[in-house]
Amino acid sequence: MKRVKKLDNSELYLEMTDIIRIGNAAVKEAKDENRKFGIPETFWKGGRVYYVLENGEITLIRPEIMKQKPS
């Protein structure tokens, strides 16, 4: 990873921290809402899509709920 020179503007760092905090809260809220509806968490690693099931199991097999078409 390339290192970059630190900026002198401390306000910029405070704003970036706030943006990251808001983004993290939004992701947590979306994950909680998906869990409520039985939609598994997904992530991409090494060119493959993984699904985290309700019981914590990680699988490569697409769960049935993800195969359904929205109504």
What does this entry look like structurally?
The structure is a single chain. The protein contains 2 helices and 3 strands. The chain is α+β, with helices and mostly antiparallel strands and 71 residues long. The protein has 2 domains: 29 residues; 33 residues, no CATH class. It has a 3-stranded antiparallel β-sheet with strand order 1-2-3. A hairpin with a 5-residue loop joins strand 2 and strand 3. The longest helix is centred in the N-terminal third of the chain and has 27 residues. The protein starts with 9 loop residues before the first helix and ends with a helix.
β-sheet strand percentage: 15-25%
Instruction: Give the SSE string.
Output: HEEEH
Global Rg? 18 Å
Give me the side-by-side strand order of the main sheet: 1-2-3
**Largest sheet composition:** 3 strands, antiparallel
Q: Strand tally, please?
A: 3
Average pLDDT works out at 91
Low-confidence stretches: none
What would you call the structural class? alpha+beta
**Assembly classification:** single chain
Number of domains: 2
Distance between the termini: 45 Å
Our count of helices gives: 2
- Considering DSSP H and I runs of 4 or more, what fraction of the residues is helical? 40-55%
What is the 3D form? elongated
